[in-house]
């Protein structure tokens, strides 16, 4: 293979891209009354994931710590109103080799948050003026398990996430 003909890996979309749990989303979409919607900075991707627009960041590359803030609203509903999951304005806080994925509860302008997942902090790569994290493993938190009505136990793997933000 000619090295000049090899294209670089495509970068993930700008923002936070997460499939949540693709099997769950496929299940909801298969329900007669299943609904999946995006708004306010969140979009659906071609690969059945969701992309949240970047909002702000105080991430320090040298220390590997700080907060990446995103905006968007993903709502998943079904079972005649018995199931409703809302992921609003996610943040990722990196500190001490770990990351916490949290969402707004919608009760206080982004100040009231709940952790939905934990991730192992990894060093981003810098590409063309962006910080890029790829295939970041996420496990659901106890609060995240409650958000999904116990469908997924705390510690269970969810879909990996991808991040691309301005450096």
Report on the architecture of this protein.
- 9% of the residues lie in helices and 46% in strands.
- With 167 residues, the protein is mainly β.
- The protein has one domain (13-166).
- It starts with 14 loop residues before the first strand and ends with a strand.
Summarize this structure as a short list of keywords or feature phrases.
three-stranded antiparallel beta sheet, mainly beta
Distance between the termini: 33 Å
Biggest sheet layout: 11 strands, antiparallel
In the predicted model, the low-confidence regions spanning at least 5 consecutive residues are 1-5
User: What's the domain count?
Assistant: 1
Task: Characterize the quaternary organization of these chains.
Answer: single chain
Q: Average pLDDT value?
A: 91
Number of helices: 2
How many whole angstroms does the radius of gyration measure? 16 Å
> How much helix is in the residues?
under 10%
Strand-pairing-aware structural class? mainly beta
N to C succession of SSEs: EHEEEEEEEEEEEEHE
- Total strand count, please? 14
Strand content: over 45%
Can you tell me the overall shape?
globular
